[in-house]
Amino acid sequence: MSTVKILVVDDQKSVLVALQLLLQDEFDEVITLSNPNCLLSTLENKAIDIVVLDMNFSAGVNTGNEGLYWLKKIMEYDPRLSVILLTAYGDVELAVKAIKMGAVDFVLKPWDNRKLMTTIQTAIQLRQSKQKIDRLEGEKQSLTQVLNQSKTQMIGRSKAMLHLNRIIQKVATTNVNVLILGENGTGKELIAREIHAQSARRDAALITVDMGAVSESLFESELFGHVKGAFTDAKSDKPGRFELASGGTLFLDEIGNLSLPMQAKLLSVLQTRQLIRLGDNQIREIDIRLVCATNKDLIQMVAEGEFREDLLYRINTIHIDVPPLRKRGEDIAVLAEFYLRKYAQKYGKPKLSFSSKTLDKLMQYDWPGNVRELQHTIEKAVILTDNNKLMADEFLFYQAPKGSGKYKASSLADMEKEMIALALEHHEGNLSRIANELGVTRPTLYNKLKKYDL
């Protein structure tokens, strides 16, 4: 059964009953209205996809003006809605006017059931096409706009951060490929966005792909796109992330997670700057600025045969090392104050501040989850506190304070595994809460659970 919701608006009860009986077995929900004055409120409350709208509601009136009036209101509310007009009076001029205003089709009463169903199916396809186009455009626009306030988001006054900002400013003005290296949570994606925001491509899209969340079976489809019929669920043509980023910047996060076959396919496209959608034979040119990031040691992976040396050279024209937060401790208080102000405003607690002991505690903690852990820790504290000051005992850390010598983990991987294990216990296996707490996506969390056999 389709998940489409249809609204039928007609002043004749017999028409409403007939259409309800005809459509209810084919669609998820069929809603009927005899009074068009309730139309807009129904659209707001019911997430309607298709509207079947009568042209005349007043007795003795057959001009169709009422239908055109409500058609205009519907189009103003949501131009993606598919509207089919019903009338007992055939008028070619009226039909043309309705189509120009945004109607999908014009059906005469009494209708032929088979033809009406065909018209509705066409309207559904049109609605879905409009939604898909909007989603793709929305993704490009939102990713372009996020963090476009260059330099305001790179927070810190340590020598390491000042040096990092100078590198970003130099690199951003070029078109070279950039590899960003650093631990989880250090802000690698933020740096990629900053490079894009300061580049000549800033007005085009920045498209981000979490390579750790892309399965091998979907790799080509997600990155290079596919055409209708390329595989079972390919019901329409779809551009991949490379095409969406063309003219702008493509950020491939967690690139160290790619398998060797996936690396080979990626390398081919990067070398030629051309791609072929899955199931197609048309060569498409792409124009991207490539930025990659990973927390893995790619040189060691090359030595062990786990990462292609030619791919490493291709993505590593310039590499940027992002220092962990524990190595730029003077930035901790600055970042803590920034996130406190941000979340105090967001959650309606503008007078909130840190106690002196709290800042000392934050400064003494090693932040194995880096800036991301600090951000989530401050947000959680702001949400839960009932005080005007955030007190030291409101902060519970997974690790020992800086310099205590009580680490259980002997490596970064051990530390990550320990954090995930503690989060699993703390949140009683709730993966959504754990992913939010650790600042990762659910697919990334699944991969890490599998990696560490948790």
UniProtKB/TrEMBL annotation:
Residues 126-153 form a coiled coil. Keywords: ATP-binding, Coiled coil, DNA-binding, Nucleotide-binding, Phosphoprotein, Transcription, Transcription regulation. It comes from the Bacteria. Residues 154-383 form the Sigma-54 factor interaction domain. InterPro entries: AAA+_ATPase, AAA_lid_NorR, CheY-like_superfamily, Homeodomain-like_sf, HTH_Fis, P-loop_NTPase, Sig_transdc_resp-reg_receiver, Sigma_54_int. One of its GO terms (biological process) is phosphorelay signal transduction system. The keyword Transcription regulation applies. Residues 5-124 form the Response regulatory domain. GO terms for molecular function: ATP binding; sequence-specific DNA binding. Pfam families: AAA_lid_14 (PF25601), HTH_8 (PF02954), Response_reg (PF00072), Sigma54_activat (PF00158). The modification 4-aspartylphosphate is found at D54. This is Sigma-54-dependent Fis family transcriptional regulator. It comes from Ancylomarina salipaludis.
